[in-house]
Amino acid sequence: MPTVMTPTFNNVTEVHQPTLLAPLLDPLIAQFIQHCPGKLSALVDHYGSPLNLVWPHAFKLNAAALQGVLKHYNVAHTLFYGAKANKSQSLLAAAAAMGIGVDVSSLHELHAALRAGIPGQHLCATGPAKTTVFHQALVDVGALICVDSREEIGHLATLLASRTASRKARILLRYRPKSCPTSRFGMGADDVLGCLQQLAQERQHFHFEGFHFHLGGYGHESRVQAFGEVVAYVDAAREMGLAPVMIDIGGGLPIRYVDPQRYDSFLRNDNNPSHYYNHTVPEAFYPYGSQLTASQWLALFLESDCLPGQTIAHYLQSQNMTLALEPGRSLVDQAAISVFRVTRCKKLANDKTVIFVEGSSFSACETWFSSEYLVDPILISASAPPHTPTHAYIAGHSCLDDDVITYRLINFVTSPQAGDLLIYANTAGYQMDLLENEFHRHPLPRRITATCCTQGHYTFLPDC
Ligand SMILES: Cc1ncc(COP(=O)(O)O)c(C=O)c1O
């Protein structure tokens, strides 16, 4: 158990890295945690707990890595950052700085992306229930619209016919892959062909650009399969005189939160009811120890065949098609940490211990999806040795019985005390702010943009 002592916070500050499910950390963030726990404590004192520290440099590294793979395979490409993964404005600004687009799912995300400096033509809108005002705004800024249904294209046609402005709507059709026949998202064969006919007939309103799909899960194989299915619709569209130029494969590229071997070992040896306070092992987890990084996933995808003897990369090149991706989680890999202050450590009747933190499981929310965040927190402790090892689960400060951050009993080398900090790493992707709210009238957690200016020097600015 690596423990680093620094003299900056009270008398002694110790940074206790967990060993069972230790988070993989971006080097700059790791350095900050190890060397500046006093600064972290001062920030929490100032801004409150929990505190989300957002690190846009990590976003830029992730975008550059994916761009590198796409360039290596020499395929025309467009990245749309899935802005639903995180609400931080500084990450949209990072997308703008990297020259990539944004996938927006609401009028509010659209406005935020424009405010960050993303050009309207670099936006693409997904989601099945876009409102008329959202459609209107998308057409006005020249964004791509992923049409989810024949009903949606009907609404769009009515809207466009009623406008005096002559702007066309730029369209991708959302295909529902055969692997998910009952999904409410996208269209099967008949509806896709019906939409193509309408697009061919109503060229005064529509500019058709191609196809889109998004699948649950994180396997590249299911995307390869779906891509192969879409190829047939590209041919069908061309036969109708349309000119598709893009296939957008949505998001779902994986993140590696913990070392894959460690994760496998945890699943084999430590993931049983006795390791959970509620004696219940969740049925499903995100693959926290992914065997593949997002870049490796993308390379495998591009090297896979979509037609007999033809890889996806070759198909895209030979057909002059652009590959679009909408990564959310994988672009924000490492782009935030969430810091909770401990309020109390309480012994329970069954000889177990609960740690209460200031803040709630709405800011680290996997338990609300009947799962667990299988990444151990880092403890910043101000208590001097000797240490009393503790096994404890972690609960939020609300009166809800279900306000539990982890039912899993975490091994601490020393018992956390009031005022200590627990750091959850890598929370930018759907963890820190998906469910956040003002329950009990506690203000929303603050988010602070952290930047490393020179070696060991950081700036912290409110993210807005
Ligand atoms: C249409 C669409 N695109 C992209 C994404 C982003 O997926 P991920 O964060 O897994 O990359 C989602 C997530 O739900 C989505 O629905």
Keywords:
alpha/beta, diaminopimelate decarboxylase activity, binds pyridoxal-5'-phosphate, 2 domains, 24% strand, Lyase, Ornithine Decarboxylase, Chain A, domain 1, 12 helices, TIM Barrel, eleven-stranded mixed beta sheet, eight-stranded parallel β-barrel, elongated, 464 residues
What this model shows, in words?
This protein has 464 residues and is an alpha/beta fold. The chain folds into two domains: 3-55 and 334-462, Lyase, Ornithine Decarboxylase, Chain A, domain 1 (Beta Barrel), CATH 2.40.37.10; 57-255 and 290-332, TIM Barrel (Alpha-Beta Barrel). It has twelve helices and 21 strands. The chain has helices at residues 27-35, 37-47, 56-72, 89-97, 107-115, 132-141, 150-162, 189-201, 220-239, 260-269, 294-303, 312-318, and strands at 3-6, 13-16, 51-54, 77-82, 101-104, 123-125, 144-147, 169-174, 206-212, 246-248, 305-307, 310-311, 322-325, 336-347, 353-358, 378-381, 390-395, 404-412, 421-425, 446-454, 457-462. Strands 1, 2, 3, 14, 15, 16, 17, 18, 19, 20 and 21 form an eleven-stranded mixed beta sheet that branches. The longest helix is centred in the middle third of the chain and has 20 residues, at 220-239. The radius of gyration is 24 Å and the shape is elongated. The two termini are 37 Å apart. Residues 3-10 have low confidence and may be disordered. It binds pyridoxal-5'-phosphate. Its cofactor is pyridoxal 5'-phosphate. It comes from Pseudomonas chlororaphis. One of its GO terms (molecular function) is diaminopimelate decarboxylase activity. The active site is at 399 (proton donor).
